[in-house]
Every structure is written in C-alpha cells, then in structure tokens.
Fold these 4 entries.
Entry 1:
Amino acid sequence: MLAGSSAFAAAGRLNDLLAGFTAREIALLLADWEFCAREDQWPPLLAPNARPWRVWMILGGRGAGKTRAGAEWVKGIAQGRSQFAARPLSPIALVGETAADVRDVMIEGVSGILAAHSRHERPRWESSRRRLTFDNGVIAQAFSAEDPESLRGPQFSAAWCDELAKWRYAEETWDMLQFGLRLGDWPRQLVTTTPRPIPIIKRLMNETGVAVTRAKTRANAANLAPAFLETMLAQYAGTRLGRQELDGEIVEQRAEALWTRDMLERARVASAPPLQRIVVAVDPPASSGKRADRCGIVAAGIAGDIVHVLEDATLESARPAQWARAAIALYHKLSADALVAEVNQGGEMVRAVIHEADPSVPVKEARATRGKYLRAAPAAQLYEQGRARHVGAFPALEDEMCDFGADGLSSGRSPDRLDALVWAITALALTPRVAEPRMRRL
C-alpha cells in the first residue's frame, strides 16, 4: 500500500527503486493499488480490540481520486483481499445520484470499477439488470438515489455510496440502505463525496462508527492536467467554493451570524487600489502559553470610503514579544501608518511591548467600551453597503465572521481574528479624521 510508496518517496529512494525496472514492470507497479494508493485512499486501520467502523467516509475535492478509491475498495472486498475483507463480500450495493451516474462514473467511468480491473479479471456488467458479476460469483447491484424505494427489500454485506451530498433524496435513500445492510459479521459502507453542509453529512461526521478521511484535489496532481490545477487554484483557492470543491471542506455559516458567505464572496477582489491609509490591528491575548487565546493580527487599508482587508497574520499561543514582532513585521511590510492595539487587557503593557520591539512604530490605542457584538455590527454594515473588500481569501478569518452571532462564536472561543478586523475597520472607516495622507499603491 502506498503507505509504502510514500515512505520510499520521503526517503528519496523511489528513483533508485525504479531504476532497475523495465517500462512494463513500472507500468504494472503503478497499476498496483497497494503501491500507488495514497493514505487517504486506503481503508482506515482498526486499533487493537476496537469496534470496526460501519461507515468510511472520504470527503474530497474534485478530482481528488475519490472514485478510484471507491472502485478499488469494491474490487478489494469482492475479491476478499486481506487488506479489505477477511473473505469475499456479497452482495454489494452501488448507490449513486442517478442511474446514469452509477453506470457512467462508478462502473464504466475512467476511474470506475471496470477500469480498476485488468481485462482478464474484469467483472461482467449487465446494464439491463443493473448488475455486476465477479468471477468468484460476487454480485454488485446498482441503485439510484432518485428511487429510495428500490432499496426496500434487498439485503447486502457492503455498499459504496458516491456523491452523497448531491443525492436528491439523501435522507430517505440512506435510511433504506441502512435497513438492507444486514448480512455477514461486519456490514460496512464507503461514502465518497465532495462535501456540502447538509444535515446527513454533518450528522455522519459526528456519529460513532464513522471513520472520516479527507483528500484535497492537489493531492492527486499527478493524475490531473497541470493547467487545470493551476487555473483552479489561482481562481478559487481559499474561497468558499474552492474550500468545498478543491479542499473537500464543509464550509458553514450560522443563520444568525453578522456576516454571510455570499456577502464575503461579493466583497472579494484580486488586488487593492491605491490606498490612503493602512493600519495593522492587534487584539492581544490576555495570557500566554499553550492554552492562551490567539493573538489577532489583521491589516487593512482604505481608498475613498472603501476598506480593503489585506492580510490575516493571526498567531496561535504567542508570547507578547512574539506577537509584537509579528505585528511590527507586517507594519513594515505594508508600509502602514500605525499599529492599532486593543488595550483593555494589557493597558500600558501593550504599548511597552511594541515599543520595546521597535520604538519608531506609532501605536494607536483602542479601548473597548461596548460588547463584541455591538462593536462588530457597524463593521458588518459596511459589508452590507458594499464598502468593504477582501483582497484575496482569508479562510480562518471568514469562518469566524460567518460564525459570529449575538452570543459570540458557536465554539465559545474568543473571536480574536474578528476582533482585530473590527479594530482595523473602526480605525479606518468608523472614526472621524481631520486629514488624509497621500495615496499609496501596494
């Protein structure tokens, strides 16, 4: 298994290993799933004395190799290969979004079950009966998620469910399938899907007996057109769509949050215009160490009446000297006009720490007199009015923004990135100024 291949590559010995092989031998080796599979494409290992998983869910981006992993898994359990099953499992349910998807992607596709077999061992596909028959007698039956009732009655030892997040009747089809998985001593199922924040996906991720692996599109770069990957990453990396479709992430938002994903996507731009002022805002943690809050560090500038968020340099568990150096480095990198530092927790200490690192940096103190939600609401209003832009993507910051409601973050953690953003926006657009310095281009 490429647990083995990864080890060779990491040790720099893969080329040496292949040097003595003929072209035909190399082709055979690369066709061997045990050699070329990535770790995220291999069935989860069972810990000693642990209860076996009943669902293995691969959450992956487009082109991440999910279909190939599913096809090889079906092949492995049908043949009873030791890494997959103790003995051949039959019958197997193959469930896709539509009947055409099962046929064209899961079975006949370029990464499907037929392609995963060499020509001499390929199972017999009877399209009219929606059935695959393997040489050893194992049967795999095709089902469409458009017809949940078709799963009422049949029984199975295993199932492969492809693109569950796209199923029209996801809950109904899933429920019917669970009633049918009742054969053998370990009925199991594989789910391969690009995730969406739908109830069934979120529920499965939190259920016991569900093993989750993740696969990013870029992990499968060797099997993708270079121009495709380059274009997709340049255009979508870090955006909501890119995080979902390329990185296989579940990107959520709270209904009562001040910001929405659509609002942030509308605010996204590729570059900033000449800016009149730039500030680096710092929200220092009240303590330091491993359990300390993050130190929010966000840079933003303003052109006319439009704020442009430039960078999120927030640090995890940083000591005062560390976050001061990081904020000052960003200040100099952007030729900013000032550091804006929240001083409720540290007071004079905050200014002293910054000046100890660089006494030339001007520090503007920000003191909170209202709660976080009330402070953040005017900043969110600027986004509603189209007066705020994100130069690029800031996934961690945007996650906080779309999770921040009247009771704070759903996790209960401090919204450190968001606090720093609000201080920057407040200093640039929500605080009256007498005069504006010259325009600068980044």
Note: The first strand starts at residue 55 and ends at 60.
Entry 2:
Amino acid sequence: MKWQFLWFFPLGVFAVEPLPKSDPAKVGMSEKALAKIGPAVESLIATRKLAGGSVLVIRKGQIVYQESFGQRDIESEKPMEKDTLFRIYSMTKGLTSAAALMLCEEGKLSLDDPIDLYLKELKGQERWESLRKTTSLRRKTTVRDLLRHTSGFPPTRGGQVLNLRYRKAGVMDREVPLMNTVEALKGMPLLDEPGSRWLYGMSSDMLAAVVTRAAGEPFENFLHRRLIKPLGMKDTAYSVPADKADRLATSYRLELKGLKVLETAAESKYLKDPAFKGGGSGLISTITDYGRFLQMIANGGEFQGKRYLRESTVNLMRTNQLPLSIPQISFGKEQRFGTGFGLGFCVRFDHDDRWDKDAAIGEYGWGGAASTHYWISPKHELVVVTMEQTMPYNWNMEKTLKPLIYAAVEKSEKE
C-alpha cells in the first residue's frame, strides 16, 4: 500500500507523498560500499568532532541510505533521529533563490532589473572609499548580482568601519523586521562595485526584500505558500513550535578539548518567532524536508507531478554565472579553486586538487554555519545531505563522506 500524508489548506486537501526508497543495487549503488558511511561518522563522534549527525543519500530520485548517528543532545543522552530539527543557516539561501526565480518566470522580476526598482530606499547608493569619502557607482546592483553574490553589499561580520555601520543599522538582527532593515540602509554605501567581486554577505537577505516587494506579500508567506508547503516540507519554518521543541538538536562549538554547548533546545532563540525573516539564514528544517527541496532541483524543477521552475531556470542555478573577471569563489585567503557560483548554488566547473579533490565536475551545493552540507551530482544522479550542529563551520562530514559515497556508485553507472 502506498501511503500519502494529507495536509489541509484553505483551498482543500493536498496529498504529499514521501520520498520513495530503493535497494541500492536497483539504482546502481553498492550497499556494501554505503555501509562504510556509518563507521566513518561514528569515528568523528568518537573523536569528539561532532555530537551526532544524519546522512541522506538519494540516487535517481530514490532514497538508498538514510541513517542518524550519535546524539542530538549529549548532556541528556537524546539520540539523533531522522526527524531531528536543525538550524540550517545558509541553506536557507537555496530556497530564497528558487523563490526569486519563480517570480522571474512570472514576469514580476527580471534578472537584470536594478534592485532599487523594488527597494526605492536604496536609490542613489554609492561605493565606500573611506570614512569620509564615497564615489558614484559605475552601474547599479541587479537581481542577478544578489543571486550570485556579486552585489557589492558588505558582509556584516568583521570589525571594519563599514561592517560595524551595517550592524548598527540592525542588519540581520532577529528583532528588526526585514523591511525595516531595508529602510535603515537608506544612504548606506556599498563595499564594492557591483559585479566586481564575489563577496558572501547579505545579498540573499536583500533578495528576500526584493521578493517581498515584487510578490506583494511578506517573504516568509511567499516562501511557505509557493515552496515549503507544496513540497511537503512540514518541519521547515523560522521558529520551532512548542510541540516540536524536544526534537531540536543542541548546537555545539568544536574546541581543542572537544565540544562545548552553545545553545540547548530548551533555551534556543528559535523557540520564539523572530521579527527578522530574511533570505540568507534563519530557517529550521529536517534532513528529509531539505532532501525534498533538493530533489525538486535535481529533477530540473519538477517534483511529484508539480512543476515549480522550468528546467532552463534551474540550469541557471546550477551552472557557473560568474564573469570571467572572477575566476572562483573565495572566503578571504581561502580560494575555492575550480568552484564558481550559479544563481543559487556553488558549482564545480573544473577539477583542481587544491580544493575539494573528491568533487565531481558539475557538482553543485552549499551548506550552513553549523556544518550542515549538501551536494548534487547530475552525472551521478546523486543528492546528498548531511546534518549536524557544530560550529564554527567545518568540512569534516563532507570531506569524510564524499569519497565513500561516490565510490558506492557502481562502475558501470559512472561516466
């Protein structure tokens, strides 16, 4: 019997089918090779590199591996489970990008529209030179710039004068509503000339504000109405309701001596609905919920009989869209060689052992600040998600599991 979950909406009943499962061999995966995932994760737990984690592997649209390891809370000995809730931080960005591109397809946005067409508060923006000097921009920031992180907006982290000014304005403050933040940015200069540099900052939050104006409704409403609810992401939201609070994992800081509690479920700020519901971070989700979104993307914009995006639009998300003047993405001195950025995800366009030597050409994905990861390989027809709650961001899970998972693809199925 095929089970369906029924959700009730104002317009009636909506059937949500679970992600299908398959024996690995039936979709060209080695069960024996996939079995190496468990010991690898358990080793990370034994060496106190993480408290617990979850792994989801989907091949050709079928779940071939889904397991949870360790604990979601060490102190109370609560196990990590398939429905554990995670702070996904920057994994929010993929959903935001998809939401904006839906509006592009409907003609309510255009990739090359200047963002001040929608955010009039930002008209007349200039570029930062020094404490007392700004200069005119050669061109305005566009919707495309926001999607690929070439907008010129500064990161809000760091101690530079402009970063501090943005933070003082309440940028990404949970107590300041998104559109109030836009108003507070009136007269604020950009750090860079738009299109001149890939810089990871608040682009996705400004994209959420653009969606708000273009859609004529709050960003979080559009996101839930058009993506989260129809995709069946039943546990994905900006806060955790009381009846789900016990499922939220404790977050930990990885230190030299091991793991230190950062935020327990009982004391989490996510138990309270935030005023700021941005596009760059803030969502809570489960590994299965996020796997549903990624499978829609892997399918070229279609999922369980419903089309969300055209395949041509999804291809813009998962192919490098950076200009030739930006050879790869980077975080300070960390150059991610052979890796560009599409309109939503990082994209591996060239093999370079100096960065992520196990990545496949064409692989795309991203992650979140608590060391959550995901990657999709079109040529292997693979979707992989790993979840944990370990800060600062590290690559332990992805770099440990990626070679094991690719090795589990049967040779006859590889290119």
Note: The longest strand covers residues 62-73.
Entry 3:
Amino acid sequence: MNLCRLASLLLLISLSCLQGQDAVGTIAPVEFSLRDQTFAESMVLELSCSTEGAVIRYSTDGNPLTLFNSAVYTKPLTINGTTWIRAQASVSKESSVITSGHYIHLAEDVRDFESPLPILVLENFGQGRVPSKDWNQTGAGVQQVARQRAQWCLFDRDDEDGISRLQREPNQSARLGVRVRGAFSSSFPRKPFSVEAWDEEDQETAIKPLGMPKESDWVLYPPNAVQDRTLLYNTWLYDLSRSIGGNAMRFRFTEAFVHTDGGSLSMDDHAGVYVILEKVKRDGNRLDFPQLSEDGKEGGWLLSINRMDPIPVGGYPTANGATEPQFFHTAGPNRNLQTSPNQAGRGDDIPRQGNAFINFESPNGYAINEAQRDAIEGWFETFEDVLYSNHFRDPVNGYRRYLNVDSFVDYFILHDITRNTDGLLISMWVYKEGPEAKLKMGPVWDYDLAYKSTATSSLAINRDRLWYARL
C-alpha cells in the first residue's frame, strides 16, 4: 500500500471513529475531575466515563478530535501549563458528546492579582493574535475573517469584600469564537473583539455573563484612553439613554487579560479595562420584536447606517445568491432616487455621508429575500413621500404617522449634548417592530469621538443629516 492510500485510509478511519459515529450522544460524556480554573502548581486530572467498557480519547490542542491529534486515556494526566483538554468516549461505533477542560497557568507575578472590578481572561491557548479583517473608509472589498476558537473566564467580585481574585475557579467559563471587530477602532493598540459563545461543535449557544440576560453575541470594548481618559464616553450615554426610556445595550466593566502567546498568564497579558457589551440585535432580551416574514408583510426589521458590510467569510454567492454587499439609499428631498441598489449614494439621496449606507441587519443582507427587501425599501418611499410633502406637519397623516417622534428627539439630544462628531453620519441603527409600528431611532451607539467641543460651541451638530433637516 503506497503512502497516499495509507494516509487516505487513516483519515477515513479517523473520521468514522471520532466524528461520524452512528449514534453520537448515546454514550455518557467524559467527566473531568477538575473544573475549569486558573492554577499555580501542577495538578492531576482524571477522566472518567460511566458507560461500561467505554474508551476515552483526548487531545491537548483544542482542535476537533481525530486519530492524528488524540491519545487513548490510560492514566491520570499531569497538568503543568496552560492546557485545553477535549475528550470523547466511545463504545464500538457509538460515542459521547465532546467535553472539555480549560486550565490556565498563572505566572508568579499574577498569582495574587485582585481588582475592584470583575476580572476577565480571554484565552486562546497559544494561537497567536486574534484574527482581524482590514478596513477602509467605505468598507468596499473588505473580507471578513473566520472566528478563532477561544475561552473566556470571568471572576466576579466576592460578596463579602467586593474584590475579584484571579487565582480561583471562575464564576463563568465559556467557549467562544472570537475576532477583532470595528473599522478604525480595529487599528487601536487595544483591540475591540466580537465574541460569539459556542458549544463543543462550534455552534452558537447562549451565555449569561455577570448577570446580563442570556445571548450568544457579545462585544468586548476597550475604552481608548488616548482620547477618553474617563473611560466612560460610551457607557454613561448608554445608561443615560436607558434612564430616559431608550433601548440601549447593557454592559459590565471588567479588568481584562488577553492571553494569546501560550505559556503562563502574566502581567504582560494585562489589557486594562474592557467592557462586556451587548451587541445590537433582534432578540427577546434586546430589541424584542418578531422577525420579518418571508413575504415581508409581518414582523419587523433592523437596519444599520454605517460602512457597507464586509464580504462574508465563505465568500460569494451567499445564501440569498448575493454577489456583493446589499444596501440601499432613499430618494431624499427631491423625491428622485438617483442611486441604484448596492451602489454609492448620489445627489441628495439619503444617507449623504460618502461612507454611509443603509445596511440590512435583521434580516441580514446576505439572507434577505426580494419580497423582504421590497417591503423595507417601499416603506421608506412611502414615509419620505409624506415627509417631503406640503402636509408633512399634519398631526395625523404627516410624519408622526411613521416615526416614533420621542426616539428621534431623544437620539438627537444625546448626540448633541455630547458633540458627537460621528453622530448622524455612521454607526447608527433604526428599527421597526412590526407592520403597524413606527420607525425608532437607535439604540445609541459609538461615542468614541464625542466630547471634543466646548459647552458654548454651536448647537445642533450635524443637523442636516438623514431626515433631521426636515424634522
């Protein structure tokens, strides 16, 4: 048998034995004698399975189990360094689900580390830098990158003294897919991250960090101390918005470590203050409304006004057959739509900002169908026909019939009092909760470039953008 045939045979055996069993999950899962934790001294880990006669295989590199990267468990394992153990039990062609243990070794300089904030450790077990896409002003041609497997451990504050400590079992240990997020902010020394909670099969699963409602999608946001020495530019606005009835995202402050180079966690990995922030998303605990029906007649939708969406990880065509980013503009004051679908804006079409586009978020632009898209764009055509008509102030049939006026007023006030130079240009959201609902402005988002002017500078900053000039 030549080497190529032998390699092919071994690969087939590996896949059939470890990932293609006839009945995955009928065998009891492998149990770990040690819970996920940080540690200073060597530990002994025992693996077991309650199913009689089960063979346990394990790996130490965090990748899917195969014959090539796994070993048969025969005796307790000594854990000396930062290690990710994945294990699976099998009997004949039946196997258990995969289970994992995560153990982070602490260098001497962090063993007594404590903080008045919860401590976050983002650990990727030596895979190197978290992957990041490129960026440009419009987003055109930017290719999204795949998420990297990782883990976060959260150490909450002690009930008695309000202090969190690193050398203990975490209050939460969660498996993640992570990548750098943002455009210009992705170039900062401290990177913001997009986090998606995963199960052992790399599928989304909901988690509840530090008491916030369960969801799979989260943002790790580091306030940029170069321009925001308070570290509060965004978060106090989110709190202020929520306090006056806005649907702002919840958050929790943490003191973070980002460990990507393998070995022991040390003070070299200390990353300072990071905020765990809810991603803007249609969800029962965030923006709570039913999804848009296939015919576009029922349910609601969420849009972003921002740079165009990146090319998806898998490239084109996408699920809906798209071969380019999907977005649109509206006709604006002259009621003459000069911009073709998915093209840069022209004339007085809205948005007028050269790097701003109305992107589909829910449904996503790479999943939306023609009927759904027609329903959304058709609504804006009807709304603008009224907004730019002579009877737009009519209290019954004018713009108030289409807009949630309070949300538009509140959004502008919060933008204006902070002198948000990015405000009403990019990084915005609008959503509609159902066929009879009115359009809401928000949630508030992205105040990194706010607070640059004095209290006596001109009011109504960027007041000519979107529909605000007419309003």
Note: The chain has three domains: 3-104, 110-278, 301-441.
Entry 4:
Amino acid sequence: MTTRTRFAPSPTGFMHVGGVRTALFAWLIAQKDNGTFILRIEDTDKVREVAGSVEHIIESLKWLGIGWQEGVDIDGPFGPYLQSKRLEIYHEWARKLIASGRAYADPYTKEQLEAFRGEAAANKKAFLYRDYRPESADNQPSDWDGKSTLRFKSDPKAYKWHDAVMGDLSTGPEVIDDFVLIKSDGFPTYNFCHIIDDLLMGVTHVLRSQEFISSTPNFLNLYEALEIERPILATLPYVMAIDGKKKLGKRDGAKDILAYRNEGFLPEAMINFLATLGWNDGTEQEIFSTQELVEKFTLDRVQRSPARFDEKRLMWLNGQWIRRITLDDLYDRCQAFWPISAASADESTKKQVLGLVQDRIKTLSDLPVLTDYFFGEPSVDWSMIENNKQLASLAKNDVRSLLEAAKTALDIDNYTSDNLQTILNGLLEITGQKPGILFSLIRLAVSWAPFSPALNDTLSVLGRDKTISRITRTLDYIK
C-alpha cells in the first residue's frame, strides 16, 4: 500500500505552530515511506474564511521546506483540492446515504433546536439530536434538492479502535449523534466532506489535533454507513502555553508562523523545534536535520501528553543552527537584516563582520545591534558605563586615564587579531586592571553596543583609524 498523507487546513487566518506541526508530522510520514503528501484546502465555512489565507498557507509551508506532490496549486489525479469546487461530489455521496436510509432532511428551525436544548438541560440530560429525530427521517424523498440541511442518521453503538498515537480507545453509544452532513447553504460540514475526500484521494493516514478525538466515534459510525475502510487514525496532543495550563492561543504566543521568518528564525530550526514538540527518538539528541527527522520519525514515538511551547528553546535551537550553516549560506540569508549603515559596504567586509558575530547571533534580527558600529559611527551613550556593574564605580578621571593608555598602546600599524591580543595583554600589566574592566571600557568606547565579539577581533576589523578616532571621541566627551 502506498502511503498517502494530507494536510487539510481551513483558510480562516494565519498558520500557527499547532497547525504546522500537524502538517510536518504528516509530511514526515509520507517522506519516510516514499509516499505522497497532499495539500487540500477545506474552505467550506465561508463565514469564517479570511482572504489571503490560502496564499499564506502555501507560503508558510514552502518557507519550511514542506513540499507536496498534489494539492490546491498542483494538478493531481484526485483534484480539485479545494473543497468549494467539489460540492457536487459531496451531494452525490449524500444522496447515497439518503438512498440507504442513513441521511434525512432536518425540518427544524433554530428556535426549535434551542427549545430542544433547553428541554434537555431542564431534564439534566446531555442534548442529543437523535432524541428529537423527526418521524420523516424514516421516509426521505430521493430527490433531495441540496438546499435544506441534511443530517446523518446515526446508529448508536459502542466502539473500540486503535489510535496510532493514543493507543487503544473505546467509547459507549451515548456519544453517537445525528450530525449535519450538508448545511442549508449547500456546503458540507468538515465531519462529512473530509471522510469523502480522504476516501477518494486514497489517504492512508489521518493526523489531526486532539480537539477532534471526541468526534471520532461519529466518524466511525459514518465510515460504517458508507461501507468504507477507515484509514490509520492518529491524534496529536495539544500544544500548550509554557505554563502548561491551557492550550496555546494567540495571546500566549501562537503567532503567525511567518512572523518567525521575519524575526530571523531559520526554517531548519523551526522544523527541528516543531518535530521535537511532543516527539523524540528515544535518545538525548536535540538537534535534528530534516533528513534525520525523515529517517527517525515514527508515530509511536509521539507522546500522548500535551507538549509545552517554549520559545526560549526555539531561540536556543535557532542559535545552534546559525552556527551550523556555512558563512556563505548565512550571508545569503542575512540580506534583509543588515543595518542601514551597511548599505554601502562591500560583500567582503560584511562577510568579515558576519564571521565575527556568527557565534553570538540568536536570530538574524540581532544583526543590526551586533554589527551597526562596524559600518556607522556610534553615538556615545554614557549610561552604558553607568549601568555596568564593573565600570560604574570608576571616576571619570580613571576612565580617562585608562582610555589614554589604550589609545597610546593601540596606535600601531599591525592590526592582526593575534598582535592586538598581545597589546591588550600588555595593557593589563601596564594599568594593573582586570580584563572585565579594561576590556569592557575599550569595547564600549569603540562600539557603544551592548554586545560585541572578542575585543581583539573587533579592533582588527575596525582597523587603527576607526579605533583611535572613537577612543579620542570618547575622551573628548569626558572633557
């Protein structure tokens, strides 16, 4: 059997980590088995649809390197892959259910349904539509017009089934109900159309979020009514906020996945992070290439308990991946993140600077703070000395004395990193100061930046003229 998986999001807004993780796991399964991954768009809820969402979904997946062989923008043998273009298919299957006595037109108004719900609540019973099933459900016309709400006529029973992640599950007949198949606007519900599409598209594995697990018994009932074999079902636990108390929402950090791209996160780091958000290979390994994930991923290693979204860990992984890629590769990815001051700098200079800060970058958006002073003249910010625990105790006369000694010692021709380190070490002996004080003071005088690479490397790239000029400017500020 050829493995065929799918990702079938609704175009109702931006993609966040929970949805992308589902796509990634389905894609990994297909990749591992040399199967097919499908991108299908479930756009049957026109009220909640957001313009531009389909394009956003495509852009998000492409950024991460999650590709599909069939989908909304790629012709395939089972298209179209946009559900709004498949309405006649759903109506055809709905008529089959009517003919077999397993579907009926819903005659009730919203007001009547609310009255039924109120009656159930007054009797302290869970509301089940099948308890109010109309008598006409047993005698449906074969010429259903497709404009009235159509409901599934359920057959309540107990179920036992195996979930590839959650294991063996079971439920009683009390959770089976008559749910809507086709709405009054002619569009199908998710509960109906995803089963039809999965069947016709040959989907072998269905991965979805934990929120759908309570609906699974109804799906099983519909599989039986349609006399079709169900695919492998896999329920993915929720992604929780960092405190573990609630499902991750927009207020808790579930932001647009492309926002991470714009903030300078690498797709390799995001893939690594999402894959290990509720999955591990049974070892202590934390950093996985995409190819390693394809080789090692299995559903039986997906944990059953919810995963916690830890952006600090994502940040750490991103730093690890930035250090793993080559300087040339990093340079190509940094084009949109250089400070304005670097606009006129040549490629060689920028690569030299980038090589110095590569080990300190956490996200590409750190680049301006870490490199601006290499290209433009920084402004003196004396508060950086006043707020430095080691430097704050120095009197201005002490600062002036140390910087004058540094200016004299650094006014040399040989600005290689090794020679500068020798000069700096000699300065420690001359001044009798600790590196944390002397080196921090010189670093601030030439950069006025919160972070910088090793001082000797920084000075080497700046060169003698800029180094002496900036120390002189700081001395003038003190005067």
Note: The longest strand covers residues 159-163.
